[in-house]
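Researcher: Next sequence.
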Amino acid sequence: MTGSGAAPRATVHHPVFARCYARMAPAMERHGAAGHRERLLAGISGRVVEIGAGTGVNFGHYPLSVTEVLAVEPGPRLRAAAERAAAGAAVPVVVVDATAEHVPAADGAFDAAVVSLVLCSVPDQAAALRELRRVLRLGGRLHFWEHVRADGGALARVQDVLDRTVWPTVGGGCHVGRDTAAAIAAAGFRVERLERFRFPDGRVPMPTAPQVLGVAVRDG
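Model: Next structure:
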């Protein structure tokens, strides 16, 4: 094992957020999240690393072209749920206690990586993306679905206020104003496909409503 993947595991504790997330997740899936996950994982194959697996809700959407999933989840409550989901998955899934900044794998070990609604909450987004680039092989693909900073206006100002005050505390470290698509490109990935949309698409947008979904390639 080389690079920062050799670092020790580090459990992250957000018990209130973990309980709330586990309760809200089924309703989110019924109201559109499941469809986004299908698009997120379309065409993925080979060895996959998933960062911030949460309750393992992605596991049921992996196509049979995936040969193995290493699912990283530092939260003990969410990790326990992910382990239960892994047991019923159609593809082999191993759930590990690790963080986005320290993936327990060798350089270039994976054909694809998956992040879904997690780069908002990692302490160091740039470091997490560098680590993903490290463990992906040349030409490997990063499949991402993330909520992002609004394109200006009142919503962006609301996001800024929330990020400076209560949102990271109540949201398990989540930040609503990160420009994650730009961060992916800045980390050395070539964005191959990018969709921008709002979810949920209500009359009054939630701070997490601006979202992106796409694929980026790990070039040389």
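Model: Residues 15-41 form the longest helix (27 residues). Residues 191 and 216 are 4 Å apart (CA to CA).
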